[in-house]
Amino acid sequence: MTELLLEKKNAVIYGGGGAIGGAIARVFAREGARVFVAGRTQAKLDAVAGDITAAGGTVETAQVDVFDQQSAERHADAIAETTGSIDVAVNAVSVMHDQGTTLADLSLDEFMRPIDGFLRAMFITSKAVTRHMGRERPGVILTLSEPGAKLAVGGILGHAASAAGKEAFSRVLAAELASSNIRVVGIRPHAVVDAPTAGSYTKDLFQPGAEAAGKTVQEFLDEGLAQGTLLKRLPTLSEIAETAAFLASDRGGVMTGTVVNLSAGALVD
């Protein structure tokens, strides 16, 4: 019988109703984790939970405002009270932001929106779960960023600053939590090829650029962004979720303070 990567692990996925968060939740459950999906929209959470339950997995849902520190802490406390610990936490929270507007036309609010939104969510969720992680049971926090953290292209000032901030946050948090037996690993996927049809904000994010080019969002991704990668394709939700399961498992137990590059070669580092 094949050993399950996350058997008897308790995992909470913030943004669990989104495309990436939902994909990770499904794979975590398949690999034996007891999954807690949290997010803003109950219908999306229920859809993910329904898939997990139908496949025989264990899942619970909760509407949680990750920008409300007390709400996030109450939710994490309730999980720990039920399970005894939180072993894995994934921050897959999405924040809509501008891409394509250069400094001359970019407002301060648009610039700050992803920086404040993404980093506020990371701080609040990390602080909520770390009280219930580590020590005798290894803990893992997985974060998500984007290639914008390292790309030097115009029109992504707020996006790039927030992505770089998320990666810096993850590295420093890994240094702080190592002595508590908690690993922190970032995942840096490119735009996801199958996300526009899977409930993510990717369609809304790239719609203006696609319309300007006279293309659908899928064509814009396949014919535009994909061609800027070494593999000439973009990552799939499945590839991201399978990587996350490995990183969260004991098989990835030596990895911390780093960012896993899933950009299909858009970035080489």
From TrEMBL:
It comes from the Bacteria. The keyword Transcription regulation does not apply. The keyword Oxidoreductase applies. GO terms for molecular function: oxidoreductase activity. Keywords: Oxidoreductase. Belongs to the short-chain dehydrogenases/reductases (SDR) family. PANTHER family: 5-KETO-D-GLUCONATE 5-REDUCTASE, ALCOHOL DEHYDROGENASE, PUTATIVE (AFU_ORTHOLOGUE AFUA_3G03445)-RELATED. This is NADP-dependent 3-hydroxy acid dehydrogenase YdfG. The lineage of its organism: Bacteria, Bacillati, Actinomycetota, Actinomycetes, Pseudonocardiales.
